[in-house]
Write a structure and sequence with these properties.
By secondary structure, the chain is of the alpha+beta class. The chain is 39% helix and 19% strand. It has a domain at 71-184 and 225-312: Malate/L-lactate/L-sulpholactate dehydrogenase, NADPH binding domain (Ribosomal Protein S8, Chain: A, domain 1), CATH 3.30.1370. It has a seven-stranded mixed β-sheet with strand order 2-3-4-13-5-8-9, sandwiched between helices. Strands 11-10-12 form a three-stranded antiparallel β-sheet. A hairpin with a 3-residue loop joins strand 2 (74-78) and strand 3. The longest helix is centred in the N-terminal third of the chain and has 19 residues, at 92-110. It is globular.
């Protein structure tokens, strides 16, 4: 079997397997199922860099004490429209789903709702959380911050993170429109995935450990910012409006090589807008579909097969994979199998 071969597994089988792994390392059944659902959702949409390939790393972070499998999350600040949630190092999907639910509740009451999430861990695919809101007729914006792993524009070393941003709005018959993107040309997880599968990188994606451009997945360590100064600047502003506001700085601690900067930490931001407070929701949904339809009628560029809106490719992939199963790279399956053996969990059926 070649290194790039895949193994196909159903989403439900994969969810049960990942849930069992996380319960084995100490998470509650509810929290383990939440993390599993978020990771499998990413694989269903074709975002393998944020899917179950992350499971071994999450288990490592639990063992290192960086992910708290039994967090005591607490609300530190609570106003009519905003909440500060101290996540107590909870797994990112646990903290961010809780934060987005709280933001939605605040939006129902005040028209807009903000949840700031302090001291969480890898937040996984942000589109999962904004889509939660869009499915309830609420528009949402989510941000998350991490330690420096991406080159700052003009630098040869990591200075900021590939901090992601997601925006989702409810639609009509076409469903929600969901943007989910990193501030890097590619997310760091995509470099890790390419390394596992031996897939060459496109020029302009990454630097090696010495700050030189590379297309070798084994040598790539530092993603480049999307649009040069634009991606670097956006990442920096996400750190300033999230991490510094919740008094949990990430970038400066890491760049100054403090003890705190050595630990795996993230912060999150979830904003919800109750559309029905400002306009007629059914009309809004129709207008979303109207503008999407108008865009799709535009003359296509040479070579373009279709004109897509944010989230459309992922939604198509999800529909196909829910029907036919999720193709996992053999390298990912082998890692999961080794982890399952070590933890004494039965491997999923293929």
């Amino acid at each position: 079997m070649t290194a790039n071969a895949t193994v196909t597994v159903t989403a439900e089988s994969l969810r049960r397997f990942v849930t069992a792994l996380f319960t084995r390392v100490g998470m509650s059944d509810t929290h383990a199922a939440t993390v599993a659902d978020v990771l499998v959702w990413a694989d269903l949409r074709g975002v393998a860099s944020h899917g179950v390939t992350r499971v071994p790393r999450y288990v490592e972070l639990v063992a290192a004490g960086d992910i708290n499998p039994r967090p005591a999350m607490q609300v530190r600040t609570d106003t009519r429209a905003a909440v500060l949630l101290d996540a107590d190092r909870a797994a990112g999907p646990v903290a961010m789903t809780d934060g987005m639910r709280r933001a939605i509740e605040k939006a129902r009451s005040a028209g807009v709702g903000l949840a700031l999430v302090r001291a969480t861990t890898h937040t996984a695919a942000l589109g999962y959380y904004t889509l939660m809101a869009a499915r309830e007729g609420v528009a949402a914006l989510a941000l998350s911050c991490s330690w420096p792993n991406m080159a700052y524009h003009g630098s040869r070393v990591a200075g900021v993170s590939t901090n992601p941003i997601s925006i989702a709005v409810p639609g009509g018959d076409r469903g929600p429109v969901v943007l989910d993107m990193a501030t890097g040309v590619v997310a760091l997880g995509k470099l890790v995935q390419a390394r596992k599968t031996g897939t060459p990188l496109a020029p302009g994606w990454a630097l090696d450990a010495h700050g030189n451009p590379t297309t070798d997945p084994a040598a790539a360590h530092i993603p480049l910012p999307l649009g040069g100064p634009k991606g670097a600047g956006l990442s920096l502003m996400i750190e300033l409006i999230t991490s510094l506001v919740v008094s949990n700085p990430l970038v400066a601690e890491t760049l100054e090589d403090t003890a705190l900067g050595q630990r795996h930490r993230q912060n999150g931001f979830a904003l919800a807008v109750d559309i029905a407070r400002f306009c007629d929701l059914p009309t809004y949904r129709r207008e979303v579909d109207r503008v999407v339809a108008a865009l799709k009628r535009l003359p296509r560029a040479d070579g373009a097969v279709d004109i897509l809106v944010p989230g459309e490719r992922g939604a198509r992939t999800l529909a196909q994979r829910e029907r036919d199963g999720i193709p996992l790279p053999r390298a990912t399956v082998d890692e999961l199998a080794a982890l399952a053996t070590r933890l004494g969990v039965a491997m999923f059926a293929t």
